[in-house]
Amino acid sequence: FGPERHILFHAESLGLKLARTADGLIRILSVTPYRPLSGDEDAYRVGTVREGDVVRSVAGVDLRFPIEKSVWKLVVGLMKVSPRPLEMVVAQELEVEE
Q1: CA torsion, ordered 9, 22, 1, 16, to nearest 10 deg
Q2: Alpha-carbon distance 67 to 51, whole Å?
Q3: Over its length of 98 residues, how does the chain's per-residue pLDDT go in tens digits?
Q4: Which of 29, 60, 73, 79 lies deepest, with the highest CB count within 10 Å?
Q5: Are the beta carbons of 63 and 26 closer than 8 angstroms?
Q6: What is the pTM of this model?
Q7: Residues 6+ apart with CB under 8 A from 32
């Protein structure tokens, strides 16, 4: 994996589509572009997140290893109820050279 990046989400909606893939890692499938509301002083999202990034941790939960489907359901619930700002650590998956 590439260098880890820390993202802070200030809004309830993360503006991301996430999925647990067959290998048990959490990947970002799509990112909604940040569009600040007029007069809104707080940033919706601080940091750079890209489609294809792998989630390494969220709200202090280490996701640097494959997780089971049941754990993924708990992580989704945690993201919904965690106070904002919510911290997520992501990294780009690097191509493996053979």
Answers
A1: -20
A2: 20
A3: 999 999 999 888 899 999 999 999 999 999 987 665 555 555 688 899 999 999 999 999 999 999 999 999 999 999 999 999 999 999 999 876 65
A4: 79
A5: yes
A6: 0.86
A7: 15, 16
